[in-house]
Every structure is written in C-alpha cells, then in structure tokens.
C-alpha cells in the first residue's frame, strides 16, 4: 500500500561530520551556505536529550528552536527552519528504547537521526555506546530497527562507524546495518585504536562502498577538493564527510574553492551572534579555526588572532577587530533568514544529482535504492507496512 512520502538522502553529496562542541547551529548554517549538502549535529547523549524541553522563539516559522535541559535550563541543541531539510541529529546511545524516545522528541525539527558507532572515548565505550557497538552489532541493529519502525518515514536513519580489523568483518557489519534499516553509513576510515594523527586508510573504502546499496559517506583526512577527487577517482567514494577540514575552514565545501580564513571567521562570528550562541562557544570555535587552518603561520600575530588568543578573550573586541561593529550584532531569534545572516541561501538540490533510499516492510528489511526522476526533487513515494 502506498503510505509514506520520503525525503531524500543526498548521494554524491558532501556532509559536515558530527563534532562535539563544533557542530552547533552557526557552523551548520555556515557550512550549508558554503555548499555542504548535509550537516550533522555534535553527538548528544540519549539520556540528556530525553530530559530536554522544546522552546520556539517568535510567532512565525523561522524562529530559533531551542531544546533546553529541564534541570538547569541550559541549551542542549538549537536549530531553525533554514536547516530543517538538511540537519542530522547524532545520538550517542546503546538503548533502543532511549534512542527512540530521544529521536521522537526531536523529529519535527530534523531531516535525519544518526547513531554514533565510532566514538572510542571511555565514556562512550563504558556505556556500550560509540565504538562499543562495532563489537555488539545486535544492539546496533535493534536500535536501527526500532528507529525505523517508530519514526516518521520522512526522517532518515543513519549510523557512523569505524573500520574493523579487516575488510571481511567491516563488510559483514555494514551489510547487517543496512539490512537493519541504515539508510546511509558514514565510515571513518580508521580503526577504533587509531589516533587522529594516523592517516585515514582510504584503500579500505572501496570494499565497503561495493558491499552495500545505501550511500556510504567517506570520512577521514579530507581537507581539499583534491582529496575529494582522489577519494572519488581512486577509491570509489561518492559521498564525502568532512570533520577537521571543516573546522580549519568551513568554506571547504564551496564548489568555487575555499575563502580566506579571516573572511570565514568574520562570517562565523556574525552568524553566531545573530543566532544567539554564547560567546564562549564562539571563541572556542575561532580557536579551532586558527588551530586547524593550514594557511596561517603557526603563531599568527595579527590583531584578530591576538584578540582571540589573549588571556581574557572578549567577543566584542574580537568582532570589532574583524570590522564587524559588535554593538550592531543583535540576536534575530524570532525570525532567522539567510538574508539577515548575510549568507547566500544554499542552492536547491538538483533532482538529477540525487537518489533516494527507500525502505519497504517493518522490521529492518534490506534497503532498496530508487533513482528519482526530474519531477521528484522533494520527495518519493514508497510502500510501508501498516503495522509499523
Ligand atoms: C573536535 C572533534 C569532535 C568530534 N566529535 C565527534 C562526534 O560528536 N561524533 C562522531 O561521530 N565523531 C566525532 N568526531 C570524529 C569526526 O566526526 C571524524 O570522524 C574524524 O575527525 C575523522 O575525520 P577527519 O579526518 O575529517 O577529521 C570528532 C572529531 C573532532 C576533531
């Protein structure tokens, strides 16, 4: 029976990878404006998500949406309509029940939910989350099935993994995840024990891409357009996911090539202030840009960097050093538009460059890929068992 309209997942696209502290609303909006197709949030833990409450600013559709922690009213996640069709909420979880409750609370504001299956940190592993799931695929499958069964069919369900110790094991894992309902799989091309400074193993991508029908987002050491070309040309990648490359310069997504880092830092600071992000988060992010950008000298001495790196950095001083007139940067929480943010709206996805992954059945069946025609740029129709 024809039942659901499904949204697209962008195959062949470029995604901003999930990054704790970094992937908040300003960075996500900036990356979308620069050309990212999909933007992931930072990882948020299921238990915390289910303890949040939704607050909508303004009367219209474009107001800021804040999810605040009921315990201390701190903001756990902010979003707005500008990113609704492109934002993926990454959840840290090892519980089908909790991951579903968390995702259901947020689903009206997001395009997708991703389960983190790659975090090697003690906190995650000890809770059975992150990379622990690579060794416990049954729980990973249960979570994917539970999400697919319960979420609005328009919400894409994905996961992000690391490589296992050999190709055969990784292939077996991704096939199981696909069969359980993952509609795209981000693959960080390192094993759990690898350090970030060790090179990503691009040679091991093709086996994964060839093993599944759903889009595989190739992640690890992508910093330039040349890296993307090499991954696509030599290693079978179609979709790309960028983390530190986008920390160093979020305009890495621009098809025309990256902008000078100071222009990007100015855009970021303006957007962060306008959407009401706290100054500490903004200053942390500016430091990351200085740290990971490759064009700046190791110890940059200009006025902007000095203001950011000083003993008591003040965002007003930093913004003024950037020529931004900090006193005029007042939050626009009630009505956030690309124009007010001073950003170019992202190009609409062209129907010919996208494909959708459609699922049939109730309980994590094999995914089926369907190419969309020109008349289906926004959605596709699929059959879905009524008993879900
Ligand atoms: C600051 C930082 C925070 C990160 N936080 C997350 C996270 O929340 N969830 C996740 O799945 N991976 C996280 N990662 C890993 C990245 O998403 C990515 O897999 C890894 O950095 C490799 O990609 P890269 O070589 O492009 O940086 C983080 C990485 C960095 C540098």
UniProtKB/TrEMBL annotation:
- Could you tell me which InterPro entries the record lists for this protein? Aldolase_TIM, DUS-like_FMN-bd, tRNA-DUS-like, tRNA_hU_synthase_CS
Q: Where is the DUS-like FMN-binding domain?
A: 16-254
Record keyword Oxidoreductase present: yes
GO CC annotations? cytoplasm
Name the coenzymes or cofactors required.
Answer: FMN
CDD domains assigned to the protein according to its UniProt record, in alphabetical order: DUS_like_FMN (cd02801)
One function term, GO molecular function aspect: tRNA dihydrouridine synthase activity
Entry keyword set: Flavoprotein, FMN, Oxidoreductase, tRNA processing
The UniProt record lists the keyword Oxidoreductase: yes
Pfam families xref list? Dus
Where is the stretch described as Disordered? 358-388
Sequence ranges of Polar residues compositional bias = 376-388
Q: Which domain of life is it from?
A: Eukaryota
PROSITE patterns linked to this entry: UPF0034
Which SUPFAM superfamilies has this protein been placed in?
Answer: FMN-linked oxidoreductases
Coiled coil regions, renumbered to chain: none
Report the PANTHER family cross-referenced here: TRNA-DIHYDROURIDINE(20) SYNTHASE [NAD(P)+]-LIKE
- State what protein this is by name: tRNA-dihydrouridine47 synthase NADP+-like
Species assigned in the record: Hondaea fermentalgiana
